Amino acid sequence: MWIRAIILSSAALTFVAATGSPRLDAAEQTAATPVVKNLREQNLKQRPGLPSCLTLAVVSGDPSKGASVIEARATSGCRVPWHWHSSNEHIMMVSGVGKVEMKDAKPVTVHSGAYAMLPAHHVHQFTCTTSCTIFLYADGIRDMHYVDASGTEIPATKALNQK
Predict the structure, then answer these.
(1) Domains, the chain, ordered by start
(2) N or C: more exposed end of the chain, with fewer CB within 10 A?
(3) Which has more pLDDT, 82 or 15?
């Protein structure tokens, strides 16, 4: 199992290297210094405006300023409701099973080792049907725009059924 996670993590890092170097934070900005992080070492946290069943850690870059890689872990049944991003989103499944739903398309089940690319401004939602770990790569600023059934933008509190 750990061997699979190591192989998938290596594949994700290879993908990031092949698609362009994400912007690094100040501590990692030495041009000749590679960045290597293990899944077990990540400091995952819940973030405001996201489901409480989801924890995240920025692996590389600064999501508020440009391209970034994020590791996300979610519990079984965790759903990120209908939303879109201003940048392209690349999803790489490390472990677990998920469901990608896109407006006007059939849902797609993804397993460990799967890859999905969702274009900027494309409305979608994601559910971990079993607990899962994923890498998310955004090729620009990472933002979150939740929408209702008609496609109208709504606040996170409404999308997440919070008071």
Answers:
(1) 2-159 (2.60.120.10)
(2) C
(3) 82
